[in-house]
Amino acid sequence: MRKRISICHFLPLFLLLLLCECTPIQHTRGNFLEKQQLAKLKIGQSTRADVLTHLGPPSSHEMFIGKGWYYMGEKTENVSFLTPKIEKREFYLIEFDQKGILSSIKKFDDKGVEIKPDREKTPTYGRDPSFLGEFINNIGRYEEPGAGRGRK
C-alpha cells in the first residue's frame, strides 16, 4: 500500500529553509586599524617602512602627489535579498613628507567623503562628429556577408 505524502511532511523542511534565508551574512572588506597598531607609529620619526611593518600594505595610495596612503575598512551585513547595511566603516589617511617620514594620521568619520555623480549629464570628452562626418567615416568599413578578407 502506498502512503500519501501530505503537506505536513514538507512543512518543517520549508520552515527550516525559510529561516536559513533570513540569517544575516556579514562581509568584512579592507583593513581595520587597531589603536595598538597606531600607537607604535611616531609622527616625525616613523618611516614608510615602519608604517608597512606595523599596519601592512595600504588599501590605496595617492596617485599624483604620492604623499598619502589610505587604509579603509568596511563591515556590512546582508539579510536575504535586502540592501546590505553598513555596520562599521573606517578611513585613515597616513601622510608622509618629502623624505618619507610620517607627517600626519587623519581619521575620517564613518561616512567618509562621498562623490555624487550628476545624474542629468555626465560630460564625455573626445570627438563629437556630426551625422555627415560619421557617415563619411563609415564608408568602406562594412562588407557583404560571407565576403571576409582573405577568402577566395
The helix tally amounts to: 4
Compute the average pLDDT.
77
How large, in whole angstroms, is the Cα Rg? 29 Å
- Give a quick account of the main beta sheet: strands, pairing sense, barrel closure: 5 strands, antiparallel
Order of helices and strands: HEHHEEEEH
The helix fraction, in percent, is 10-25%
N-end to C-end Cα span: 73 Å
Which structural class should the secondary elements be placed in? alpha+beta
Shape assignment = flat
Uncertain runs: none
Beta-strand segment tally: 5
Strand content: 25-35%
Explained architecture:
With 152 residues, this protein is of the alpha+beta class. The protein has a domain at 23-113. The chain is 23% helix and 25% strand. The chain contains 4 helices and 5 strands. It has helices at 7-21, 35-39, 48-55, 131-137; strands at 25-30, 60-61, 68-78, 85-96, 102-108. Strands 1, 2, 3, 4 and 5 form a 5-stranded antiparallel beta sheet that branches. The model has no long low-confidence stretch (mean pLDDT 77).
